[in-house]
Amino acid sequence: MAALASDLRSFFRYAETQDWCPAGIAAAIDSPTLYTREGLPQGPTWEQVKQLIKNTAGDRPADIRDRAIVMLLALYGLRRGEVARLRLDDIDWTGETLRVVRPKQRRIQHYPLIRPVGDAIVRYLREVRPTCACRELFLALHAPVRPLSATSVTPIVRSRLAALGVHLARRGPHSLRHAYARHLLVRGFSLKQIGDQLGHRCASTTLYYAKIDLDGLRQVAELDLGRLR
Fold first, then answer.
1. Torsions phi, psi for 29 (to 5 deg)
2. Which of 58, 125, 129, 211 has the fewest CB atoms within 10 Å around its CB?
3. What is the pLDDT averaged over residues 105-117?
4. What is the mean pLDDT of residues 84-103?
5. What is the share, in percent, of the chain residues with pLDDT greater than 70?
6. φ and ψ at 142, to 5 degrees?
7. Where are the domains of the chain?
8. Is 183 a catalytic residue?
9. Per mean pLDDT, which range of 63-67, 184-188, 225-229 is the poorest?
10. 104 catalytically annotated
């Protein structure tokens, strides 16, 4: 509606200059008020995320590689570019840590290596990843052997969410980041803690991901207030 109102104002301003209509029509067209972050959170539910991870537990090379990618996106809240940029040296198997380069914040973060994620990466390295000189962790499955790009991560997530019947306006890797943030919010983490996990420097950025606890609101709506009358 806001876009339509803007287009109409532009048309009538031009029409007034051409003497097609009386002056003042454009000024009389009001747009609806839009509030920052007024929409509901984006992304699948956490149950859908768990089903997504479960559905990658196959023996095909694509399943083995995609399982590691999906788990990094869903269980760490990483961006697709951060996953694509992971290198073999970023995993400290002895210290059980994961090194993530965050170019937007110009810093490096270290995370504990979650056991299921580590197992998924190990299986990918042993059974699927081609032997080559590339130091990037994730590579294309077919020749020519090359590092997986950030844009190549999007269809991996999109196609697997579509196979689950998940219908979202945005069904790419970033939707898993939204789901992860809401999952942490439901578990009682503060916005500061969620922001630190996602690599945010500003709390207002975290609000974009975890602004509404839908499950908590549903519980409030289901409260029986009959005794309080």
1. -85, 115
2. 58
3. 92
4. 94
5. 87
6. -120, 155
7. 46-211
8. no
9. 225-229
10. yes
